[in-house]
């Protein structure tokens, strides 16, 4: 077994009445590469043990050349901003520590506004991520570990 240790990513929230200096959160985030045929996208995703599926912004369906007619409509994505349909299809994913592997991924239009700056964010969930890797969170040391 090989262990890969990654630092949490520091997210600075917006200034608000509740947080006049802005909120701050440390989150486990990983870089990834998704492809479908000759098309590909790269991005970052939250490592989220509470998520059921690996889910990505719906705009990436077009970037990957995926037509909605070839995707399967699945359960709704439940999030703090409400629920929305997810379209599932087979893609290929690679992480910094893996060879490419097949992934049955979800794409949700409601995630098109999940971005940091110009970059869209995805979610790594139970199916396709946590069922493949042992993940250990260590908030006290601002890091998380993935065992392959």
Jot down its keywords:
single chain; about 150 residues; mainly beta; Cathepsin D, subunit A, domain 1; eight-stranded mixed sheet; three-stranded antiparallel sheet; 1 helix; globular
Structure description:
It contains one helix and 13 strands; from the N terminus they run ββββββαβββββββ. With 148 residues, it is mainly β. It has one domain: Acid Proteases (Cathepsin D, subunit A, domain 1), CATH 2.40.70. The strands form three sheets. Strands 4, 5, 6, 7, 8, 9, 10 and 11 form an eight-stranded mixed β-sheet that branches. β4 and β5 form a beta hairpin. The model has no long low-confidence stretch (mean pLDDT 90).
Brief synopsis:
With 148 residues, the chain is mainly β. 3% of the residues lie in helices and 54% in strands. A hairpin with a 4-residue loop joins strand 12 and strand 13 (143-147).
Per-chain topology:
Elements: E1 3-7, E2 9-12, E3 24-27, E4 29-36, E5 39-47, E6 55-57, H1 59-63, E7 72-79, E8 82-94, E9 101-108, E10 115-116, E11 119-124, E12 134-138, E13 143-147
Parallel strand pairs: 5-11, 6-9
Antiparallel strand pairs: 1-13, 2-3, 4-5, 4-8, 7-8, 8-9, 10-11, 12-13
**CATH architecture descriptor text:** Beta Barrel
What order do the SSEs take from the amino end to the carboxyl end, as H and E?
EEEEEEHEEEEEEE
Question: What share of the residues lie within helices?
Answer: under 10%
Q: Quick check: average pLDDT?
A: 90
**The CATH superfamily title:** Acid Proteases
Biggest pleated sheet: 8 strands, mixed
Pick out the low-confidence regions: none
Number of continuous helical runs: 1
């Amino acid at each position: 077994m090989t262990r890969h240790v990654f630092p949490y990513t520091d997210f600075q929230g917006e200034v608000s009445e509740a947080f006049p200096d802005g909120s701050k959160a440390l989150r486990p985030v990983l870089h990834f590469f998704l492809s479908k045929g000759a098309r590909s996208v790269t991005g970052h995703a939250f490592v989220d043990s509470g998520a059921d599926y690996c889910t990505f912004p719906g705009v990436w369906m077009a970037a990957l050349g995926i037509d909605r007619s070839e995707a399967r409509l699945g359960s709704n994505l439940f999030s703090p901003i409400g629920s929305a349909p997810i379209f599932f299809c087979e893609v290929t994913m690679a992480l910094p520590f893996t060879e490419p592997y097949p992934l049955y991924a979800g794409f949700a239009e409601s995630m098109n506004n999940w971005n940091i700056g110009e970059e869209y964010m995805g979610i790594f969930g139970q199916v396709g991520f946590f069922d493949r890797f042992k993940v250990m969170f260590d908030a006290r040391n601002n890091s998380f570990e993935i065992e392959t």
